[in-house]
């Protein structure tokens, strides 16, 4: 069995062997690359930055490579972030290949990318969706804390084992909530396999979709939780009586159960979009606008024009301050059942307004990735005017790219010919350009006339 020093040595050798091979692979395969980067703070208070490189190779395969996880010295200013990224790019010989960098909405990250020449910043849509959801859930903050407290009760080993025992004894107690679980999870429930009984999922504010996933599981286990409460109440031993009393104190009301169920239905679309847009093994940029339009449809209500002020900062729910027990005022709020009347509509209204805040309109530029994707190229989610303008813009981009390519080809050719040959060549080139325009128009039209492919198809193939 190798010791710690031996394992470190093996890892170091593997790193020294693999990195040059990856650098060469990117050099050969990639014309341009997209970078995804994020910063976080470790438990010791030190800041780290992770950098991932994505590109399409010559065979139209999507590649993703984790380049590094580096320490970033404090303060985490835009300058320090930019310097850290430049060090990574230089180490990997990538500086001239980087086309876009995707980050969250933090001001220092956006400013850092803006300071880097010939690189475009792109917001992380999955992160933005989580900001939208986090801000919209502020009206139900007390409910969230009450639910967290209930979940925390069942995260303890003793209560977790009791919940598992109840599932074994009453396997059909969840029938009314069976639709909440996907097929994969349904298959794991087997009375003969004690390792596959479902437990509650902890709600962690920094984890994407955490509240949604925690609530779905809580609702699914609702029947067993209520049975367990009755069993504990009927038992005569002191330990059971004590736990039954505590569970009664923290149990949410029927109205609160109903509101949680309604909220999960609303948030399911956001959860799906966050998961899909957060993928790294498939194309996501072209999916963003169609998904946003579908989300807007789901939350558009008669409350959409509600003009309530919404001045929260972008870091709502991004830190850990909103945890149970943060102050006496919050504790007193979660000890009392909340009045659920009107809260669902308030959350929907805030979801709608937050979407319009972060995505006020569909820009033609944002539709280009979608029209280039054979799954979405009809732009059924856009207006007719937007479709026409996007098609015109695509034609313009394509024409410019074609002309630039031909000009570069001409510039690289030999200049040692005679004036007559040079003149003839220019005429030939002009003729070629003239014909190329027709080809370009026909090629774009031909592509757009082809039927869309299935959503589960690979748009690169």
Automatic annotation (TrEMBL):
Subcellular location: Nucleus
GO molecular function, one term: zinc ion binding
Biased composition (Acidic residues): 308-326
Ranges where the record places region Disordered: 304-335, 406-427
InterPro entries: ZnF_BED_domain_contain
Keyword Zinc belongs to the record: yes
GO cellular component: nucleus
Compositionally biased spans, kind Low complexity: 406-421
Swiss-Prot/TrEMBL keywords: Metal-binding, Nucleus, Zinc, Zinc-finger
UniProt name for this protein: Zinc finger bed domain-containing protein 1-like
Species, as recorded: Rhizophagus irregularis
């Amino acid at each position: 069995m190798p010791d710690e020093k031996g394992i470190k040595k093996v890892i170091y050798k593997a790193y020294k062997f693999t990195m040059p091979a990856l650098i060469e692979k990117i050099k050969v395969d990639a014309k341009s690359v997209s970078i995804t980067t994020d910063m976080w703070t470790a438990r010791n208070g030190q800041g780290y930055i992770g950098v991932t490189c994505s590109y399409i190779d010559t065979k139209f395969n999507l590649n993703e490579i984790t380049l590094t996880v580096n320490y970033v010295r404090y303060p985490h200013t835009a300058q320090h972030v930019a310097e850290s990224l430049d060090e990574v790019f230089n180490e990997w010989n990538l500086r001239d290949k980087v086309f876009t960098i995707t980050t969250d909405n933090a001001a220092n990250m956006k400013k850092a990318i803006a300071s880097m020449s010939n690189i475009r910043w792109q917001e992380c849509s999955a992160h933005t969706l989580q900001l939208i959801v986090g801000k919209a859930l502020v009206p139900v903050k007390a409910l969230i804390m009450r639910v967290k407290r209930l979940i925390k009760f069942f995260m303890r080993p003793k209560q977790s084992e009791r919940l598992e025992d109840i599932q074994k004894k009453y396997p059909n107690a969840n029938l009314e909530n069976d639709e909440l679980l996907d097929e994969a999870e349904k298959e794991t429930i087997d009375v003969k396999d004690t390792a596959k009984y479902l437990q509650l999922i902890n709600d962690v504010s920094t984890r994407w979709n955490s509240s949604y996933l925690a609530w779905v599981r809580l609702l699914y286990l609702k029947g067993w939780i209520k049975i367990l409460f009755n069993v504990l109440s009927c038992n005569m031993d002191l330990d059971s009586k004590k736990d039954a009393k505590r569970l009664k104190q923290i149990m949410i009301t029927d109205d609160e159960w109903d509101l949680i169920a309604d909220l999960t239905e609303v948030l399911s679309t956001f959860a799906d979009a966050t998961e899909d847009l957060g993928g790294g093994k498939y194309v996501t940029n072209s999916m963003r606008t169609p998904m946003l339009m579908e989300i807007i449809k789901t939350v558009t209500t008669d409350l959409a024009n509600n003009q309530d002020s919404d001045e929260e900062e972008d870091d709502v729910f991004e830190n850990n301050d909103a945890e149970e027990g943060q102050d006496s005022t919050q504790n007193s709020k979660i000890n009392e059942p909340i009045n659920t009347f009107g809260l669902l509509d308030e959350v929907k209204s805030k979801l709608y307004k937050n979407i319009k805040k972060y995505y006020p309109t569909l820009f033609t530029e944002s539709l280009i990735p979608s029209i280039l994707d054979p799954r979405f190229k009809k732009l059924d989610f856009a207006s007719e005017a937007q479709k026409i303008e996007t098609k015109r813009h695509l034609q313009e981009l394509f024409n410019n790219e074609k002309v630039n390519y031909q000009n570069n080809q001409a510039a690289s050719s030999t200049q040692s010919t005679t004036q007559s040959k040079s003149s003839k060549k220019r005429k030939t080139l002009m003729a070629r350009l003239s014909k190329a325009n027709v080809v370009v128009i026909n090629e774009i039209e031909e592509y757009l006339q082809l039927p869309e492919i299935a959503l589960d198809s690979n748009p690169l193939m």
